[in-house]
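Example record

One chain of 589 residues, shown exactly as stored in the release files.
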Amino acid sequence: MAGTGNGDLTDTNINYVGRWDKGNSATYRSYWNGSYLSTKFTGTTVKVKLAEKTVFMAIIDGVPTTHWDRIGTVDLTPTPLANGTHTLKIISKYEKTELPFQGLVLDAGASTVRPDPLPVVEFIGDSITSGVTTTDVAVSDYAWLTGERMGADHTQISYPGITLSDGYHYSDNTFPGMESLYFKLWQANRCPDVACTGNPAWNFANYAVKLVVVNLGTNDAFNSVPSATFQSRYTTFLQNIRAKFPNADIFALRTFGGYYQTETQAVVNARISAGDAKVHYVDTTGWLDSSTGSTDFTDGVHPGDAGHVKVSNRLLPILLPYLGNVTRNDTQFSYDTTANWPSGGQNGAYLNDNHWSSVPNAYYQVPFTGTQVKLYGGQAPAHGIAAVSIDGGAETLVDAYSATRKDDVLLWSSPVLSAGSHTLKVRTTGAKNASATGTYVVGDRVDVIDGGVNLLSNAGFEGGLSGWSTWSQGGAVSSATTQPNSGSSHLVHNGTGAYQAYTAQTLTGLPNGSYTVKAWVRGTAGHQLYVKGFGGSQVSVTSVASNVYTQLTISNINVSNGSAEIGFWTSVGSGTGWLHVDDMTFYKQ
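Predicted C-alpha cells for this chain:
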C-alpha cells in the first residue's frame, strides 16, 4: 500500500528530478540522461526495485557507486551503514539508459525523509552536455557539476549528435532537432523516424525551472545549417522556452568551439530588444584550451573530465547570483577558540586559505541574514564528519571524507529559511567513516542567499553592454575581460584627462516597495552608483580607490511609481580615472 515514508512509487518523500513517465502505476520510468530520484532514509540499508535490466549510479551520503546491468531488487548497501538518516540519489548516467523504478526497500521500522526543496536548473544541449568521453558521462559533465555545486536540483535535456534545427542530422541519426524534441517526453534513441512519431508532449507543469542553460550549435555547424536558419530557429526556440517558463532566467552559451557565436549573440540581443530582460549571453571564449598537449578536450570537440571542471568553474559564478542575491563570506566566522582552529594556506581553497580542527566538539558559527546558506570547504582522506545546524536546531551530519583532496566544494545546503537573521553552526564530532584516516573539519567559506530575485538584465556584463544605455564625453564606456569579479566580463569606464560617462538600465513594471542595489567595483575614487526615477529623490553611493573589488550597496529604495533607473556616473576633472563594475543586483527587499 502506498504512503508517505515507505519508499513506494507514490511516496511524497521521493523527489523525481527530470522527465519521468508516471503513467504506469507499477513502474515510473525516467527519460533523458541525468534524470534522478532523491530522498533521505533512516536505518542501515536500502534496496531499489527495477522492472528491467539497466545501468545506474547510486550516491549514498555523497559516495557514488555505478551498478551495471541490474534488475529486480538491487541491494545498494551490501555493507550496512551506521544507523541514522542518510541521503540517496539514483541516477540514469547514459543517454540511452532509463530507470524503470518500482520503489525502495528499507529496514523494518525505517522510513524515507523528504529532501530539502531546491530550485531547478535545466541544461539543454548535445553530447557535450551529456558528458560523452568523461569518466561518469552525465554525472561528471559541466551541467551535473554546476548544478550540484549550486545546491540546486538539475536536469540535462541533451543527446549526442542532436542539432538545434529540425531536418539536419547525421546519416545514422533518425530524430528531429532540439527545437522539437525538447518539448517531448522521450529522448532521441526512442524516435522511430525523423519526426519522432508517437513521442508524447512533455507536461511542463510537472516542475518549475529557475534557470535554463542552452548549449547548442556544435552539431548544426557539422551538419552545415545555414547561419540565417540557425539564428532564426534559435530565436523561435528561446521564445518557445519562455512560453513554458515565464519567469526563468535563460542563458545562451557560446559553443565551446565558437560555432555561431555572432548568431547566438544576435539572438540574445533580439530577445532583449523584444522586451525579454531575462535572457543572457554567456561568452565562453578562453574557457577551454584546445592547444596541443592540453587535457581540456579529448578529441578536439568534447571536453574531458578536466575540461568540464574548468567550464563549471567559469559557469558557476555567472549562474549562482540568479538563484537569489548571493553574498560570499569567509571573514565573519566566529570560532569557539582560535587554538582549536589554526589557519594556513591551502591551494584551491577559497582565497587559498582555510581553518581546520579535529578537536571534538570544537565549532564555528556564522551569523547571516538571508533565506539560505551554502557551506563550502575541503574534502580529503583525513577529513571526518561535521555536525551542521541552523539557529540551534537539529544537527545534520556531513561527511567530508574523499579519497583524493578537493577544495572549495559544496558540502551542505540549508533548506529555504524564513527571511531574516540566522546563525549557522558547524561542529566537529570526532567521528569519521571507515575509510577516513582522520576527523578534521574545515572552515572555508559560506554563500548566503537573500532570496531576492535579481531584476537587472545582463547584470554581470557577460553579454557585453546588451541591455544597458551608455554615454560618454571625453572618455569611453566598454565591456572587457581583463579582470572580472566573476565570469568572464565586466563594465569599464576610463579616460585620460577630464571626462564624463554613465551606464544605466531603466526598469519598469516594478511592484511598489523597498529595493536594494549592489555592485562590485574597483578603480579610482569618486564614481557613483545611483538610483533615480523611482518616485523619490535620487540616491547614490560613491566608490573609494581600490585595486580589488569591493561591494557598494544602497538599501531601502522606496519605489512608488513602478520604475527605476540604476546606473553608474563618472565625472573626472583631470588625471586618469577608471572604473570596473561587475555582478550588479537589484532586488525587492
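Notes: Helices lie at 142-150, 178-181, 218-222, 227-244, 261-273, 305-319.
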